[in-house]
Amino acid sequence: MSFDTSVRSMAPRVRDDLAATLERARFEILPIAGVDEQIAHLPAGAAVTVTASPSKGIDATLDLCARLVDRDLQVIPHLSARLVRDRRHLADLLRRLRDLGIDAAFVVAGDAPEAAGPYEGAADLLREMADLGHELREIGITGYPESHAFIPDDDTIRAMSDKAPYATHIVSQICYDPAVIVGWIQAVRARGITLPIHLGIPGAVDRAKLVRISMRVGLGDSVRFLRKQSGVVSRLLTGYTADDLVSELAETVADRDSGVAGWHLFTFNHVDQTERWRQQLLAQLRTTADDRVTDTDQRRAPRRGARA
């Protein structure tokens, strides 16, 4: 079913809520060569997270953030726990964020095989940040709808409970199975965690890159799901756009009890393509809403010759 067809079958409230969340979608970019060419495609006022990697380090993340702060954007650097050397290094990072006028961060464990200091995971760093004191208004943490490539499920569940008291929201890792995502949201709520959730989905990403990323980040169950679904694998291999995920999760997004705040778009620096895709979805939602208003007006208009 096409996105346009799915939209036309949605209840008006669901469609309106979906449009509202897509309007405020967040974007994630990587501080690597060529990223500056993509910055111009970021929509004004958007929240933009900047990743950190073991090879580039947190300095590269903050250098890119410094280039972004003069734009009309909410800049959110990744603070990778396993890249922080010690308490003094952390204090310096927090001071630099304050000096840049950045009041949000996304705290992750990071992919470094060995920790540079005493912080093995995000919870360790969050506790130290709280002890040091900081002026951050928003702090995001990661959620895993599916099994992590290297971390047992019990550990990820326990880690979320450890991190939640220090955070303001959760961003889910990519998952291609809407049923798994919905089940995960319900499980998070059942554990008493009420933080708003931003659903992580890939934007308009080169198909070969998306397949490589999917296999690397531990999406085993999702890949098996894709193999079972007629046509889904071919869609992924010929240019996955996440239309199906967006439409199939629309009811959950509109459900106030789910606590879904919106979408987190993993652009992998395909910002221009991802933004075009987002605008196309919004245009379809607006067109359907306009059609609904027109149809309503036509039904209400008095028939020719009828008494006013």
Provide a quick synopsis of the model.
It is built from 14 helices and eight strands.
Furnish the topology, listing elements before pairings.
Elements: H1 3-9, H2 12-23, E1 26-29, H3 35-39, E2 47-50, H4 57-68, E3 74-80, H5 87-100, E4 104-108, H6 122-132, E5 138-143, H7 153-163, E6 169-172, H8 178-190, E7 197-202, H9 207-216, H10 220-228, H11 232-237, H12 243-248, H13 250-254, E8 260-266, H14 271-300
Parallel strand pairs: 1-2, 1-8, 2-3, 3-4, 4-5, 5-6, 6-7, 7-8
Helix pairs in contact: 1-14, 2-14, 5-6, 6-7
Structural commentary:
By secondary structure, this protein is α/β, with parallel strands linked by helices. Helix 6 runs parallel beside helix 7 (153-163). It has one domain (3-294): TIM Barrel, CATH 3.20.20. The chain has 14 helices and 8 strands. The protein has helices at residues 3-9, 12-23, 35-39, 57-68, 87-100, 122-132, 153-163, 178-190, 207-216, 220-228, 232-237, 243-248, 250-254, 271-300, and strands at 26-29, 47-50, 74-80, 104-108, 138-143, 169-172, 197-202, 260-266. Strands 1-2-3-4-5-6-7-8 form an 8-stranded parallel barrel, surrounded by 4 helices. The protein is globular and about 60 Å long.
What are its keywords?
single chain, TIM Barrel, 308 residues, 8-stranded parallel β-barrel
